[in-house]
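name: query_chain
kind: protein
chains: 1
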Amino acid sequence: MKASALEFRLRFLIHAVVFFLGFYAPWNAALHLDSIRTWQFLAAWTVRTVHIGFSVTTMVVLAIGILCALVAAILRTWGSAYLGASVVQAGAMHGDSVVAAGPYRHLRNPLYLGIIIHTFALALLMPPSGAIFCVLGIIFFELRLIAGEEAFLTQKLGEPYRAYCTQVPRLLPSITPRIPASSQRPQWLAALFTEIYFWGVLFSFAALGWRYNSVLILKGVIISLGISFITRASLLKQQPAE
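structure:
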């Protein structure tokens, strides 16, 4: 079940492939499925089920998308601020010590949970079959990454990490902190730049959603991705060579 070191190294590419297939849904043509977007599908289904106006249901679904994008951006930035931008972007697993600060006092994997919640937002812009494929594919891959990373950390850190795992939940965050706070300080600016893509997606949903045009929001997502690539490349150049 756990991901290999190669899968971890290629995790950004694997995420991109799963998202691409979700948006493109190449099986739709072969199966003669409707190309309607999940946003429209859910809004229309709610109209038939609850018998309220289509404009209202459309706004409700949009609000859900904005909320998912917001929670994902907060989780990713909060986690990156305490974990460190270099670790978040690293091609290999790292584990010098147990991170017991910020969101890591509430759950062990805020970054992976952020990806999963973010996927629910993007799924609204996909065809329904692509959305189902993408959500299930991302959840499956995140669980593999979590299993691989936690096995690595258990082997490297030993008893302190095992004790941490017994106190802090894996993916469902606790309302109250499960462990005392460490002295580690967050790096908010670096985290914001590292996770700028997620904030760009939030902006795309919030600023463009009122046009009721999923293609327009998708263009905002693509622009956010491009800005993220440029920002990450700039951050990597600024990191000192090991």
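note: Residues 54-83 form the longest helix (30 residues).
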